[in-house]
Specification:
flat; mainly alpha; 3 helices
Length: about 60
């Protein structure tokens, strides 16, 4: 749970910075958010979650 919250905060910060600097426009960002919500409710969400967890575990093994 802590990984998910921190990943959401990190991704939100990146999107906010990209919006503020002009590298990302509002409507494409909105489309990506809608795609993310749609993807999260699909059948591919558990493999994506497991993949993120395994990459996070792999990165934490270096520390």
């Amino acid at each position: 749970m802590a990984l998910t919250v921190s990943l959401v905060v990190f991704a939100g910060t990146v999107v906010l910075v990209l919006l503020r600097t002009g590298y990302l426009r509002l409507w494409p960002a909105f489309a990506v958010v809608l795609f993310g919500f749609t993807l999260a409710s699909s059948g591919i969400a558990p493999p994506i979650s497991r993949g993120i967890s395994s990459v996070a575990g792999w990165i934490s093994s270096f520390g």
